[in-house]
Each structure stands twice: as structure tokens, then as C-alpha cells.
Specification:
Layout lengths: L1 H25 L4 E3 L10 E5 L3 E6 L4 E5 L8 H27 L10 H38 L9 E3 L1 H22 L3 H4 L1 H5 L32
Antiparallel strand pairs: 1-2, 1-5, 2-3, 3-4
Helix pairs in contact: 1-2, 1-3, 1-4, 2-3, 3-4
């Protein structure tokens, strides 16, 4: 009963992390304008995502434009596109596999070993999904920090970490922790069943009964004889 509750909680958290990863992919706030130096413009804020860049004005008006060429993008943005799309697909696959392996479902019948293996596979897929989210987010954050401290980069081109970066880190942590908990809910008996299955015990019920050894005669060499009057 405890494992079933842990599976439900970890699966719910994993689905939440997957939805957060989808939001991170769509949000343009990966890089935001850095207000440093003497030229400070507070009337507009520039956002740069992996699909588009937007300019948000304090009046509430916002204009967005998608990137014209994919090949002209920097390597971190190209890798982020590929890995985030892969993370969304793997998250969907993880949810499907985990649903089949949970104890509260009727998939795989009453075969506990099969359900435990499916649940373990779903947990591993969630961990891989978290890694696919963590890599592009951390790569982009590293690029932003390096450009910010690079004196050769003009002040108007310096950026800071946007909200999507922090949301991506949170999604990656939730996905990996939920996947680890989901993998650990498999009972030890179901994991180690193959070892117990291969053990062949000795059957004493069908073995023939052995006759007891006859008593040994007492000889004069073994026990000294004495005469009693």
C-alpha cells in the first residue's frame, strides 16, 4: 500500500515536471536584457528564447519575431531546440510506460515482476528526460554568464538569466527525483525473483528412508569386562 502511494505521488510530480518542461520550451524568457552601465532603458525589455525574441514595453505592448534562419543561430540555441523537443517526446513516453507499470492499473495482469520492470523503465525514462532538460538550460546559462563577464561584449548585448532558465532547472530536478523515487518503489522480492527462482532445494519428502545402523557388539577389546560377585 505504501509503494502504491509513493508511485502515485512520484508519477504526479513527474507529470508536473514534464508540463513545466513544455512551458520552458515555449517561453521566450531564456535571456533578458541586462540593465547595467550608464545607458539604462527601462521603457522596454528584450527577451530571447529558443524560438523567438520579443520586446516588451512598459505600456503593455509586446512584439515577437521568430528567428529567420535556423543555421544562423548560435550552437547553444540549436542544441536547446533539439534536446527540449527530445525531452518532450521522452516525457510523453515515460508517462505512458509508467502508467502501464503502476500497481493501481490493470496492465500486465497479475504479473508482479513484469509490472515492476515496466515501472523501473518508466522511472529511468523520467530521469533521462530530466537530463535532456538540464543540459540545454545549463548550457544557455553558462553562455549568458560568460558573455556577461566578457569585457569584449558591448553593454547593449549583455544578457541576464531569464525566468525560463530557473523554471527549467526546477523541472529537471523534479523529473529526476520523481524518476528515482518511481524506480525505487519496485519491491526487492520482485527485483530479486530471478535469483530465488534459480535455487533448487533438496526435497526430503520423496527421498528414501535410510535404515538405522545395527548396534555394534561389545567386544573385550573395546570395553573391559569385570566380574562382580
Amino acid at each position: 500500500m505504501v509503494n502504491t502511494g509513493m508511485q502515485l505521488i512520484s508519477f504526479t510530480c513527474a507529470v508536473t515536471g514534464w508540463i513545466m518542461a513544455i512551458a520552458v520550451t515555449a517561453l521566450p524568457q531564456w535571456k533578458v536584457s541586462a540593465f547595467i552601465g550608464s545607458n539604462i532603458l527601462t521603457s522596454e525589455i528584450k527577451w530571447e528564447g529558443i524560438w523567438m525574441n520579443c520586446i516588451y514595453q512598459t505600456t503593455g505592448h509586446m512584439q515577437c519575431k521568430t528567428y529567420d534562419s535556423m543555421l544562423a543561430l548560435p550552437p547553444d540555441i540549436q542544441a536547446a531546440r533539439a534536446l527540449m523537443c527530445l525531452a518532450i517526446f521522452m516525457g510523453w513516453l515515460s508517462c505512458t510506460v509508467s502508467c502501464c507499470g503502476m500497481k493501481c492499473t490493470t496492465c500486465a495482469g497479475d504479473d508482479r515482476r513484469a509490472k515492476a520492470g515496466i515501472a523501473l523503465s518508466g522511472g529511468v525514462l523520467f530521469i533521462l528526460t530530466g537530463l535532456c532538460v538540464l543540459i540545454p538550460v545549463s548550457w544557455t546559462a553558462n553562455t549568458v554568464i560568460q558573455d556577461f563577464h566578457n569585457p569584449n561584449v558591448p553593454l547593449m548585448h549583455k544578457r541576464e538569466l531569464g525566468q525560463a532558465i530557473y523554471l527549467g532547472w526546477a523541472a529537471a530536478v523534479i523529473l529526476m527525483i520523481s524518476g528515482a523515487v518511481l524506480s525505487s518503489t519496485c519491491p526487492l522480492m520482485e527485483r530479486g525473483g530471478r535469483y530465488r527462482r534459480g535455487y533448487i532445494g533438496r526435497s526430503f519428502a520423496n527421498s528414501p528412508a535410510l535404515a538405522p545402523d545395527p548396534p555394534k557388539p561389545i567386544t573385550s577389546n573395546s570395553v573391559p569386562l569385570k566380574e562382580y560377585v
